From TrEMBL:
Residues 1-32 form the signal peptide. InterPro entries: TraB/PrgY/GumN_fam, YbaP-like. This is TraB/GumN family protein. It holds the Pfam family TraB_PrgY_gumN. CDD domains: Tiki (cd14789). The keyword Cytoplasm does not apply. Keywords: Signal.
Amino acid sequence: MLARLNRLARRTAAALALASALASGLAAPAAAAPALWAIRDADSTIYLFGTVHVLRPDTAWRTPGIEAALAESDELVIEVLGADDPAAARPLILKYGVSTDGPLSSKLSPQDQARLEAAAAAAGLPPQALEPLRPWLAAMSLSIAPVIKAGYRVGSGVETVLTAEARAKGRPVEGLETLEQQIGFFAGLPPETELAMLKSTLEEVDEGPAKLDALVKAWADADLDLLEREFVTEMREKHPEVYEALAARRNRDWADQLKAKLAGSGVSFVAVGAGHLVGPDSVQAELAKRGVTVERR
């Protein structure tokens, strides 16, 4: 049981790094230029950078503008500390990810159960390992495997790289939310929405790497329209409850936190998933509602 829990913790930690995209390779081009924004007042600057949480090791994304903003910054702010830490995820899996209302197979049709068994086999998991899990955790455990097989790594993700660099330089690293909060967003979904999330994953799990390839290219090219369509529009239309829980509500909270930070002084580099920085409910849109101007760099 402990060995199985450790494996699930590792998978969950990796999948959480994919959560903002709800994704399930093309490396970014050498001339990549992901979008960067700035918020300023008399004594504060906040750089706002959209990221991809998992990348291939050879993906190019750093630009002179990004490097200058990082060099100027006093601190790094990311979505959550410890999102890639299995030890931190393990007790939260027990608390939020284990079913209390019967095995997973009892909630699935024969067709969906067959899909689950096929996806589990492809991920190297025996189907019985998923039986105790709530649908949201089963979905995340299955969605990460094809992406990892395609060469993507959490360790190459933007936040992981920037966090290591900031700590090496002795700069503080803060999180906008806790790991328990982030897992709680999934665990708090209505049961029918949680099950729909798993079914959608089973239908689209094989498309994960290709979809992420397209998203990484759009991100590297700063194609904000495509990012909005892929990150926001699809989720907003197909799964509005998931969109509200994983995107819109969090964007409102982060906008409040950034406005409060602007009232202080100093320079902060804020790196969050690119999907939070596009669309009608983006962090920038929420900041505008609070009277804060965000400028594209």
